[in-house]
Amino acid sequence: MGPGAVRYAGLRHQLQALQCTIEDSGNIQVPVRDTLPAGGGLAYLPAVAAAGAAIYNAGRQAVAEGYRPLFLGGDHSIAAGTIGGVTHNSPCGVLWIDAHGDFNTPETSPSGNLHGMPLAALLGFGAPEMVNLGRPGPKLSAPDVILIGIRDLDPAERQALKKSGVGIYTMREIDERGMASVAKEALRQLQHHHRLHVSLDMDSLDPREAPGVGTPVPGGLTYREAHLLMETIADTGKVGSIDVVEINPILDEHNRTAAIAVELMASLLGESIL
């Protein structure tokens, strides 16, 4: 229901106001959740892999045809397909903006939730069905990835991230240094890329700002910190593709989280105060 909530919040109107030409390719078909095994977690792997393959192909085709794809979730497991697809022919830098590391594997995850595993899969760790989605092996290397807004990691996931070599900015660093400093430094680390993919999990924001997410964690980004981050990324002129994920309208308040997501996408695509 997340993509529908974002469309209802005025995404098309907001982007048309920025002179964007829009082609809405509709939704990737996924099974109704109630038709899947009751256990959840790894039992959903075949369904997630099938949806991910379709997403991969859609992303690959969009980039090949010169579009800048914007993927609406859904949970963050879609990123195994989106980032795989947009890097099919050439690499890109990835800004992973999230409360969580999403760096678990089936062996390390306490919950078995697949939406806690996509970044690990993109770097070559975890279930083969996710690691080999679209094409065999890793889709990213550690210097390609910067995480921002992290504040909730599982114990084994924390150790794996420390060893991985990816760039990480936790909420403590944002608190101490300010978002402007963190954002500019993160972008300097990715300046060797001519194209950026922004994977925005709405639970990166504090739940007081964005309540409609499945795994809220207190102490997240403020409204203005999130906009400043988007505006700073937009200033590079390198945004080539975007994920906006983890919007759950059942948990939201008057579609507030989807509305903020639309505003953040507009900032990321060039909307400015002046």
Characteristics:
single chain; 274 residues; alpha/beta; Arginase, Chain A; 6-stranded parallel beta sheet; 6 strands; 11% strand
3D structure, described in words:
There is one protein chain. This protein has helices at residues 2-8, 11-16, 45-64, 79-86, 118-122, 128-131, 155-164, 171-177, 179-189, 223-234, 256-268, and strands at residues 70-72, 93-97, 145-150, 167-170, 196-201, 239-245. Helix 3 packs parallel to helix 4. Helix 7 links the parallel strand 3 (145-150) and strand 4. 38% of the residues lie in helices and 11% in strands. The protein has 274 residues and is of the alpha/beta class. It has one domain (2-13, 69-268): Arginase, Chain A (3-Layer(aba) Sandwich), CATH 3.40.800.10.
**What's the domain count?**
1
Shape: globular
Strand tally is 6
For the sheet with most strands, the description reads: 6 strands, parallel
Overall helicity = 25-40%
In a few lines, what is going on in this structure?
The protein is of the alpha/beta class. The protein has helices spanning 2-8, 11-16, 45-64, 79-86, 118-122, 128-131, 155-164, 171-177, 179-189, 223-234, 256-268, and strands at residues 70-72, 93-97, 145-150, 167-170, 196-201, 239-245. The protein is globular, with a radius of gyration of 17 Å.
